[in-house]
């Protein structure tokens, strides 16, 4: 069963704070090297979800008013709400066309709050401000589920349309669209970059990913790269990352390496570079390109992306006079 984890500190304004993490990397890594290994990516650390939109004001009175409507009045109102919600979604620039929209109330600040559904997959909560505030339903319902466990918290707005409900299945579908092929064992919504949601994907027995919506689909980045950028993946262990590095080395001269540490070094047009620390033996720098791995012993790899940092390499002897 796929488990979905929830982030703390979820009640507040509709905002997500992104920053480069300053914590120490989990695999004793340092800044991405330059040179042969290429430059590592600048990876934002999503520190928390600012929360679902503000709670709905005067909800009870809105329900009472709706109950007094005739069937015709209700049909007209729902059609108008649907058209207004779809127009708002278009103005907000959400990632998919809205197939359905409902007005679910007003925020404490007095702005209309709509829920939309997408033609395929979950939709959004959108606040009708001058610049619309947008939160994906997967992120919003993740936040609400976490808040629900705190009896002192003010419940935020949530998505209730049927197509917006299955959070776990939605994230798995997003991961598959992003090209993640592993067996997914855990996942979570981390937050948003503007209106684009960010998710973490845990893989059974191997390195995981962080995926982010883009205008054209999805981008993904491995947890090895996330760690090297100073952040972390909650669902990926060092043992799983070691297993991934071991698999890369299976068809190289480093196949006998018992990997007990490693790091992502960076990417360039020549491929993606890693270092593997071998238990009781010399380590390797290796390059992966188009499914092919080429390994270089640490003693001869000093010129590749700055060389090995997890394995002590003896200084070259002085040149003979």
Topology:
Elements: E1 3-5, E2 16-19, E3 45-49, E4 56-57, H1 59-67, H2 71-92, E5 98-107, E6 112-118, E7 124-127, E8 133-136, H3 137-148, H4 167-177, E9 184-193, E10 196-203, E11 206-213, E12 218-222, H5 223-228, H6 238-248, E13 259-268, E14 271-278, E15 284-289, E16 292-297
Parallel strand pairs: 1-9
Antiparallel strand pairs: 2-3, 4-5, 5-6, 6-7, 7-8, 9-10, 10-11, 11-12, 13-14, 14-15, 15-16
What's the shape? Answer: elongated
Total E-strand runs: 16
Largest sheet: 5 strands, mixed
Q: What strand line-up does the widest sheet have?
A: 1-9-10-11-12
List SSEs in N-to-C order: EEEEHHEEEEHHEEEEHHEEEE
Share of residues in helices: 10-25%
What number is the mean pLDDT?
78
What is the total number of structural domains? 2
Low-confidence stretches: 1-55
What's the tally of helices? 6
| Rg of Cα set | 24 Å
Secondary structure category: alpha+beta
What portion of residues belong to β-strands? 25-35%
What is the terminal-to-terminal distance?
68 Å
